[in-house]
Amino acid sequence: MKAAVVRAFGEPLVIEERPDPEPGPGQVRVRVEASGLCHTDIHAAHGDWPVKPTPPFVPGHEGVGLVEKLGEGVTHLSAGQRVAVPWLGRACGRCEHCLSGWETLCEQQVNTGFGCDGGYAEKMLAWADFAQPVPEGVTAFEAAPLACAGVTSYKALKVADVKPAQLVAISGVGGLGHLALQYAKIAGATVAAIDVTDDKLQLATELGADIVIDARKQDAGKELKEHGGAHAAIALAVNPAAFEAVNSGLRRGGKLVMVALPAHGTIQVPIFDTVLNGTSVIGSIVGTRQDLAEVFQLHAAGRTKVIYETRPLASVNESIDAVLRGEIKARVVFDLGAGR
Ligand code: NAD
Ligand code: ZN
Ligand code: ZN
User: Fold this and answer.
1) Which residues keep their CB under 5 angstroms from ion ligand 3?
2) Residue 299 lies in a domain
3) CA 288 – ligand 1 centroid, Å
4) Shared-domain flag, residues 279 and 311
5) Quick check: 254 pLDDT over 60?
6) Is residue 312 part of a domain?
7) Which among 12, 103, 150, 223 is least buried, having the fewest CB atoms inside 10 angstroms?
8) Is the dihedral of CA 137, 140, 141, 143 positive or negative?
9) Given a cut of 80, is residue 17 above it in pLDDT?
10) Hey, how many other C-beta atoms are within 10 angstroms of the C-beta on 325?
11) Are both 233 and 329 inside the same structural domain?
12) Residue 339 pLDDT > 60, yes or no?
């Protein structure tokens, strides 16, 4: 089988021919149909963060495909079933976080495409308990972006505790942002979408943004304040200055939810304003299996739209460059050819 491999940080990925991986106890082998390119894969391939994967590794945590082989002890999945293999490859199931509905904070977790090989491959392994069944009515190409971009932005809105009639700022209308915008609308909020490319601003309008802010020409904080200030700002743009801009646009009691993970990212949080205005800054990391089930359910019910373009895995390096140049409308989904 073919896989796109990071051999060294910052170097182009290499397409390699590898033997089919054998599922161990509790695992399944998945024949990948579609695999999304999340900006996190780029950070992983570049070694951007304090915690780094160990090359060689296969990135990708938006892999969707058909179960092909069951490892020992797997009884709840069957061959031919469509599953998504998200970032949360597995968690311990026993710790305080796992037991309190926060498996995404488990310290024993293994992350797909980071701590084990991921979805940039024709075949991949998944821990069966964390492989999410994809419901009827959701295609593999739609399920792929939903498996990270969808669940992460859905969870960020839960963390923000968005209520109808609130103003929510979506900073960055890329893979995550184009879905965050839709979940904010579903929650009943008024949405201010912020980006720096004409295409993304256009997409935001098409997806129903009430206010569109061009951060190249406008001060996002000031614009938000002119609308009374945001009750919540979801920071999805890979740029610390964009976090600071929306933080300054919160209304009293507002929340900045940090989601994007720029390399060496730090921001200035003014103590005086934070105290006087009672604002908070909180991080949000992907979502649980239940969150992903809800994301799929919403999509199956026709309530969200996934914007993506398909490309062959062989285009992986050009595709990464295109994402970095901001040329992709929302998500690249690699077509791995399974199921045809
Ligand atoms: P993306 O590249 O598809 O989207 C980023 C968007 O931000 C683009 O539309 C870009 O035009 C826009 N942008 C750039 N500079 C901006 C600025 N100054 N102001 C406003 N918009 C700006 O990336 P993505 O796949 O959506 O991922 C976004 C970030 O979220 C990445 O850092 C990724 O690693 C991170 N991420 C975090 C989690 C999590 O669990 N916390 C999960 C997935 C991704
Ligand atoms: Zn991701
Ligand atoms: Zn745990």
Assistant:
1) 91-92, 95, 98, 106
2) no
3) 20
4) no
5) yes
6) yes
7) 12
8) positive
9) yes
10) 9
11) no
12) no
Number of structural domains found in the chain: 2
The ligand with the least distance to the CA atom of 99 is 3
Beta pairing, strands 308-312 & 110-111 = unpaired
Residue 120's CATH number: 3.90.180.10
How many residues in total does the chain contain?
A: 340
Establish whether residue 242 lines the binding site of ligand 1, counting it when its CB lies within 6 angstroms of any ligand atom: yes
For the question of whether the overall pTM of this predicted structure is more than 0.85, the answer is: yes
Examine residue 143 and state whether it is found in any structural domain, yes or no: no
Same domain, 68 and 161: no
**In this structure, are residues 181 and 202 in contact, taking their beta carbons and an 8 Å threshold?**
no
| CA–CA dist 125, 117 (Å, integer) | 8
The parent domain of residue 76 ranges over 2-133+307-335
Alpha-carbon span 152 to 288, nearest angstrom: 9
Pocket test for ligand 1, best of 43, 207, 238, 320 (most atoms within 8 A of CB): 238
Query: 231-242 burial string, b = 16+ CB within 10 Å, else e?
Result: bbbbbbbbbbeb
Whose tokens are 């998500």? That residue is 331
